[in-house]
Amino acid sequence: MGMPLPKMTLAEYMAWETAQPDRHEFYRGETFAMVGGPSGHNRVIVNLTRRIDAHLDGTPCHVFSENMKLQLADEACFYPDVMVTCGKVFTGDELAVTEPLLIVEVLSPSTQGYDRRNKFILYRSLASLREYALIDPATRTVEVFTWTDSGAWLLTDQTNLGTLTLASIDCKLPLEWVFKGMDHDSA
Questions:
Q1: Would residue 123 count as lying in a domain?
Q2: Element (H, E) at 31
């Protein structure tokens, strides 16, 4: 068992994290080691990143996967599984995204409660965020929260619709693409 880390400021965390071989999330001075997920978790992230990137080609939007940090003011840094940001020009040396339009978390048994509650509460503090999707590879459940013009989050269960609709980036992906490679008979 490792020694607990001393509390850090966000600046200390950012400097420390860049030198670490493993990823750690940061929340109010504390750091938490990230654990790798099963192959289905990774498969969905790769599928989404690839398809969303192709969809965004030629637009001012960028997709990032689980190795890019999301910074929430001076309070937290997380590693969302997939996120999209629009309008900012990236030079290639940024350490974090601060204004995501879309965040997708691919659920695992050990993190789904945290992703559904605590992270979503924190993510909602981002003025730029317009959509939050939760995808469970084990159950093939797809839930999308969309910010509405009336100032509320609308939940749509897309599990049985056959398509993942991400209105924030005007993207529709067949669920078979989202879960491609997770069945023995898929190519």
A1: yes
A2: strand 30-33
Is 187 a residue whose pLDDT tops 70? Answer: no
User: Which residues span the domain enclosing 83?
Assistant: 37-178
N-to-C CA span, the chain: 41
Domain of 151: which CATH number?
3.90.1570.10
- The 10s digit of each residue's pLDDT in 85-105 is 998 877 777 889 999 999 999
pLDDT tens, position by position, 100-155 = 999 999 998 877 888 889 899 999 999 999 999 999 999 999 999 999 999 999 99
Residue found by looking up tokens 């990230």 in the block: 34
